[in-house]
Protein 1
Amino acid sequence: MKVTLWGTRGSLASPGPETARYGGNTSCVEVRGNDGTVLVLDAGTGIRRLGLSLPGSLRRVNILLTHLHMDHIQGLGFFPALRNPKAEVHIWGPASTTLNLRSRLTRYLSPPLFPVHLRDLACKLVLHEVPGDDFDIGEFHISSALVCHPDPTVGYRIEAPDATLTYLPDHEPALGAQNFPLSADWTSGYKLAAGSDLLIHDAQFTEDEYRTRMGWGHSSLKHAFEFAALAGVKSFIPFHHDPSHTDEALDDLIKDSVHLAHPGFAVIPGIEGATFEPG
Amino acid sequence: MSSQKEIELILARQLASYLAMPIFIVDPRGNLIYYNEPAEIILGHRFEETGEMPVEEWSTLFQPTDENGKPLTAEVLPLMVALTQHAPDHREMWIEGLDGVRRFIEVTAFPLDGRAERYLGALAIFWENKG
């Protein structure tokens, strides 16, 4: 499995000289299998450059959306495969209690927010609702589960023959927990993350920021490190960086968190453009 | 992978942990998977001490009786009615906690339905009736 980070920023695209190194694009991660299968995790603004990197001959793309907040779908309309009549694009994502996935996506992919209707996209579009039973895409075996974040939101566990990746970009497992972390069975996202080779996890806030933004659906770096330790992962990428955090600030925050946590796992800064082969 | 509770149950526990009303949460099999601190006072035991309990154990633990002192079976307790009949239920009863104190309480219970027709169990709120 080869993992590439195309967008690591949370909430709002944040380009500029002060964010050039960690990147300003919102959530998008490419997972490529040894058999050539391509998974796209979320469709934030990072998906535009990912789309440009894919060969035009690629006939099937699989997009796994964790939820439908704007920073995770804004790039969808700019993904070239959606305009390719020879392409088959499968999108997985959560329905709500009253609207199916198609209706929810249409709220964005229709005027006045976007000039093209979902139904007018040239590709063959196939929608799948999650969470549900585990499913297979190429060499990948994928599990999904609802996690703690406002509005229906899932995380994904992606198992390949050589490695397991867990993707929890928007996740607040510490919400309401008076002594976080609680036991594993009472911790949101634990089952998805347990024993993963690589965990990509929300680490948006500092401790001070978290105190005033509790319930917004995101984790502090401290909570993210504690969650990674509870899950027993081998490596951890802090992800979904706050728009206000500059490259210098992120360097310091991650360095300080490592110093305080003494983690028993590798910590890899979530830098746009970085590529990994976990396992 | 170890087991993990459904997110709705995790959030229900978190809500219960902040409320002053005694709350029980059971899974679809009737196992008591959580009770909060106010419920600990009525039961006379801490959740951290007892942990999860099967229905046969928790339903007799506080010796529920009707107003005439007749023991109530597990099947007629609101929590079990909510669980088995998939409907809300409410009743008054007498209980005796592990602290030996006899209390007159009211209980309201309702089933917990998750998205995509996932049946998660039931939740009961009960409080001492001092009126």
Protein 2
Amino acid sequence: MANKLLIKNGRVIDPSSRIDKITDVLVYNGKVVKLGKIRNSANTKIIDAKNKIVVPGIIDIHTHLREPGHEEEETIESGCKAAAAGGVTSVLCMANTHPVIDNQTAVEFILMKALNDGIVNVFPIGAVTKGSLGGELAEIGELKNAGVVAISDDGNPILNALVMRRALEYSKMFGIPVISHCEDNNLTKDGVMNEGYMSTLLGLRGIPKESEEVMVSRDIILANLTGGYLHIAHVSTKGTVELIRNAKKNGIKITAETCPHYFSLTDECVKTYDTNTKVRPPLRTKEDVEAIVQGLKDGTIDCIASDHAPHTQEEKNKEYDLAPFGMIGLETLLPVTITYLLKNKKLTLNQMITKLTSNPAKIFKLEGRGTLKPGSIADITLIDLHKEAIIEDFVSKSKNSPFLNWKLEGFPVTTIVNGKVVMDNGKIISK
Amino acid sequence: MKLKTKDLLGLEYLSKEDIELILDTAVPFKQLFTRSIKKVPTLRGKTVALLFYEPSTRTRASFELASKRLSADTLNITVASSSVVKGESLIDTGKTLEAMKSDFVIIRHSMSGAAHVLARNISSHILNAGDGFHEHPTQGLLDMYTIRDKKGKIKGLKVVIVGDIMHSRVARSNIWGLTKLGAQVTVCAPPTLIPPDIQKTGVKISYNLDEALKDADVVNVLRLQLERQKENLLPSLREYTLLYGLDKNRLLKAKKNVLILHPGPMNRGVEITSDVADGPNAVINEQVTNGIAVRMAVLYLLSGQEGVKGGERINEKEQ
């Protein structure tokens, strides 16, 4: 098979090189070779991208692939397929597996599995502390050498401020961000949804917004103290957006991500006790949704990530209090973002693509990715902005999505990873 | 008129008309209790399963009696001696009861939304007998029945609900029902036991029972769960009693004919003293009797039968 790929007549958008025009992209040996009008030649696979947009491969900086430990929920193989289905060419996977990714061997396991079974790029995130227990620091230098692109105890906050200080301080020499899951567990206690009118009506225990904001404030103060690189995961509240905006103004080294469910859903969705709406941080209110959209608009929030968190039907089909937190998101990342941010004219196409490609690549130093510059790695996503579909099933092993049966607009149609087509018109092309 | 719903999950989901229909239909059922044969054949051949995940005396006995007085067969699932202790899930237990052709499943559960989970998964009529902090609709109905029976109306009455509003399903059902029927409701508790934005349901908030009592027509005293102190929501029970306990002295500040309700079981000496609980203003035992009538009405109406209209008028005539 030809290793030459010609993507013809698409609207090519590459924020990293300020390109937005209808043209062709030539891929050879896994690299982007040329942008411009290119004639067909022999031994070249042609992809017709007419009426589609052609963008750098989507980078999802927050996923849970669950392997090792919870292969019944997702594996590296199935998670990568779900990513491909969602137009995602690279995933950053969180360290809270069983065992935790807190040592070189565990990182190597992920990378080996990804190489053997994965059809998209997998970049592991290492734990900040041993066992993600929030105590002793993990061997961050060794983790970095083994290939992690960031460190995080995501799933749990680092409650001890001294530990967080040391993590920010120590990791400075490696130039990798500390991704903070901001939550004060004492304030969250046994809360299961946003604290407010809806939790009052439903009789469910609330998680106040301040549970997130108290920790964001603390981490900003510590980032200022240490000069470390802080990245705030899954921003869900108006207060957090304001805190980050101010921190950036004050020159603190901070970046942030939010997730599609935080700009599309509110705690009203919990009304039916559908456990697919149970997520941490919880779905907030209309006011927060608006502030997050504003934060995306003005650059306070740098990235959009899925926080893909698979759980089986058995785990989820339960009383609300008993179901685990989390929702899958790899396959709805693009359609929800397009439907809620682009179609509603909240973000420009260029802004949206930036937050899904070049910003993630920049923050996590993913060389040659998040761009279509000649010489870069040929991770490319083709999107049909006008395709409408009802979300009916998932490639992921798990189905825990609040968007099931929703009609959305704007879907990926082709996913190309390292110059190879891994998804075409919804069909996954396995190894 | 018929009830347009398959299940009774909460009073939030019922219209004013639905609630009035249930209260009206309960009136003739209550009259039945004065006869020597307290039974009607209305639900003969039907099966009512009682699935109680939490301890209960009056609600469970009341539903059982209500079913029996309608000639239904009852099936008691005591969770402590059932497959639940072997790890059977709520849904599987519900499906088992459905497979046994239970026409009604009455569920009491410590978690909010448990009745919804069941209603979504099985076809039997689901009656919520209390789910977590969410709702306890038949308690709300029997409280309203009692108030209407004694006061002749609900509209315009000033009702104070005092106690742990935050963790009370009785409070929520009362709030929905009473506000729909036009009462003015005040919730009274320390700020730590008032849930956020509760005023959006149309109630007033008071931290001071003495003030709230002044012009109250009805006071519904909630049971204080003794573990709230451990959660640091209260410094001590003693202080709670000092500030929110209903005793004889406090009662003197209220209207002479104020009605005192309590859903039971009471912590005598904590939220209410015995002289008040057993005094002339209290209607706590009548609440229990009315509970059976209201639950008969609910079972009867959910089975699809025609209800009675105009109970409020019947009541006024009786007075």
